[in-house]
TrEMBL record:
GO molecular function, one term: metal ion binding
Compositionally skewed regions (Acidic residues) per UniProt: 300-365
GO biological process: cell division
Family, similarity comment: Belongs to the TRAFAC class TrmE-Era-EngA-EngB-Septin-like GTPase superfamily. EngB GTPase family.
Cofactor: Mg(2+)
Source species of the chain: Chlamydomonas incerta
Protein name per Swiss-Prot or TrEMBL: EngB-type G domain-containing protein
Biased composition (Basic and acidic residues): 200-209
């Protein structure tokens, strides 16, 4: 069996899995890792610091090494450290401040917490604004679907396993790369409309079936009647709209409506990824994907109400409704791309203004530290929407490192993209959960991609809708060759949600590199102080450590206030350099991946 670890461009990120030995309870792994391989793991360096900024602290350490934060060091032998002690809520840093491009530098404590909302009102059909299309390269890797590491991000022969060498702004190498043209390829409007219509029809059928059930019998969408109705509606709608791929994809999905609890990325997620996603992948490989026309999701501002529903909570009850549409601030200056040394690195941007309440002792967790180049100040000079699609085959050519944002519906993914780019309306934001329904590509500074994805866990999208989202997002995670890092967003204003933990586990099991971005740090309401928010963050980390030996990098943000923007940009910049040096892009260009 091939070593999965060696295939990961950033193997360090998944050391936590080797070390933890993953618990059986998180057995949604598409393909469990061969434990033997990990015996030979190398460079785990015990170091200080934590959080994204700590990369700087460890910059001089062995290249490619994983540096584990001081506390909770793992027992020799790769055992998961003992349960993290009871922590005190980390000191908050409220957030305020403008999204400045300053990169985080100084070791910033870990995230603290705010939270955001979760599931909500009914989903909306998406509309499209389109643009023209062109043919993009097929980004999918043969046979990659859902096969975990083995299928994911293979390292090109000759490419060094160890991450980059030191530190140097990436610009030169990256700037030599061909500049992406405004997009071209994507699912056609007809396909996307069909997709939306079919999903809505299926949801409606499902809702009817649910209502028909006697109260008290927790109506499950996987009810055979509902499933059959949903399948029929989906297939018919897709066929009527002439979307062969989508029609088949949905058919495939509805053929196996074996729902598992949670509707999250757990067991069902895994299977959808290897099943439905695989099917989609196969179809696409056969050239069945529809014509490519760039297409943008409609800006229908739902304004739905905010009752939070069905947000499965791991701990405690969710308190109240949702946020009120605040958004990231603007920054957007200019031309061009830049990565310049950040003189005042360490401040994490101009965003740390906020409240200090809750600041105090901070619980330390064992966190993986990536040996990335030192923080740099990054400016987003250009940020453009490229296209939307629902299959990996229709994604833009994988020319640049790609960073994808995922999280529960309404957690603030689109807002975070706007915050990162300093553009107010680049990604579509809505109070209404379920706003984003496609894989949306944005090209930043003409040399890296940001990707907005549909959220998970939105009850009102219905089982059918959830399955479809999960199928293509997971297929995307498992097969997109240039995916450098996933940002898993977690609402810091609410208690840890099981679905988020499951998603983190799914990403880990599938060897998808990810970092955790806590959102809505600014959010306040009765009972939600900075200290409470921090306790949410701490509780989430602690919960994650039940399954993992080490935490992935994490950061606290507020799109509304610009908190964490500099750190995030700096983190991404470091990853871009590392990614470029890994040789993967070149391998992709040469068709090796
Ligand atoms: N207070 C506060 N609200 C936020 C923040 N980020 C996002 N929101 C609000 O949360 C709601 C959802 O934001 P979106 O960015 O659309 O969330 P999303 O995760 O993209 O949602 P879906 O596309 O539906 O999955 C909107 O009302 C935003 O204004 C934040 O940092 N602070
Ligand atoms: Mg969104």
């Amino acid at each position: 069996m091939q070593s999965s670890l060696s295939n990961c461009w950033l193997p360090a990120l998944h050391q936590e899995r080797l070390l933890s030995g993953r618990r059986a309870s998180c057995s949604n792994a598409a393909n469990p890792l061969p434990t033997t391989r990990f015996a030979s793991r190398q460079s785990i360096v015990q170091g200080g610091g934590h959080g994204l900024d700590s990369a700087r602290v460890t910059a001089g350490a062995a290249r490619g090494a994983v540096v584990v934060a001081a506390a909770g060091r793992p027992a020799p032998g790769g055992k998961r450290p003992g349960p993290p002690g009871k922590g005190s809520p980390g000191g908050p840093k409220g957030a305020k401040g403008k999204p400045s491009g300053s990169s985080g530098s100084s070791a910033k404590p870990k995230p603290k917490a705010p939270g955001g909302g979760a599931a909500k009102p009914p989903q909306r059909a998406q509309s499209s604004s389109s643009s023209s299309s062109s043919a993009g390269g097929d980004s999918r890797r043969p046979g990659a679907a859902a096969s975990g590491l083995n299928s994911r991000m293979p390292r090109p022969a000759g490419a060094s396993a160890a991450p980059p060498e030191a530190v140097q702004p990436p610009s030169s190498a990256l700037s030599r790369m061909p500049v992406a043209k405004p997009m071209t390829r994507g699912s056609s409007p007809a396909e996307l409309s069909a997709f939306a219509a079919a999903r809505d029809a299926a949801d409606a059928a499902e809702a009817r079936a649910r209502k028909a059930k006697p109260a008290g019998t927790a109506a499950e969408p996987d009810d055979s009647t509902a499933a059959a109705a949903a399948a029929a509606a989906a297939t018919a709608a897709a066929a009527a709209a002439g979307g062969p791929l989508l029609g088949r994809l949905m058919t495939a999905n509805t053929l196996a409506p074996t729902r598992e609890a949670g509707g999250a990325p757990s067991g069902s997620g895994s299977s959808s990824s290897s099943g439905g996603g695989g099917s989609a992948s196969a179809l696409a490989q056969q050239g069945l994907a529809g014509p490519g026309v760039a297409f943008r999701e409609a800006q229908d501002d739902g304004g739905g109400d905010d009752d939070e529903e069905e947000a499965e909570e791991l701990i405690g009850e969710r308190e109240e409704g949702e946020e009120e549409g605040e958004e990231g601030e603007e920054e957007g200056d200019g031309d061009g791309f830049l990565l310049v040394e950040d003189e005042d690195a360490g401040e994490g941007g101009a965003d740390d203004g906020g409240d200090d309440e809750g600041e105090g002792e901070e619980e330390l967790f064992p966190e993986i530290q990536l040996n990335l180049p030192p923080p740099t100040k990054v400016k987003v000079k250009a940020a453009e929407y490229m296209q939307s699609c629902v299959t990996v085959a229709d994604c833009p050519p994988p020319r640049y490192p790609e960073f994808a944002v995922i999280g529960r519906s309404n957690v603030g993914k689109s807002s975070l993209i706007n915050m990162i780019t300093g553009r107010k309306d680049l990604a579509l934001v809505s109070k209404e959960p379920g706003k984003t329904k496609c894989i949306n590509h944005f090209i930043i500074n003409e040399n890296w991609y940001l990707v907005d994805l549909p959220g998970y866990g939105f009850a009102k999208v219905g089982f059918q809708g959830r399955q479809q989202f999960e199928t293509f997002t997971k297929e995307y995670f498992n097969t997109r060759p240039n995916l450098a890092m996933v940002l898993l967003l977690v609402d810091a204003s609410i208690k840890p949600q099981r679905i988020d933990l499951e998603y983190a586990n799914w990403l880990t099991d599938n060897e998808v590199p990810f970092a955790i971005v806590f959102t809505k740090a600014d959010k306040r309401r009765k009972g939600l102080t900075a200290a409470v928010r921090d306790s949410h963050v701490t509780a989430f980390k602690r919960a994650l450590l039940r399954d993992l030996a080490y935490l992935p990098p994490s950061l606290l943000t507020s799109a509304a206030r610009g908190l964490g923007r500099g750190e995030l940009l700096s983190f991404i910049a470091g990853l871009r350099v590392a990614y470029e040096r890994s040789g993967r892009l070149e391998a992709i260009r040469q068709g090796m991946i």
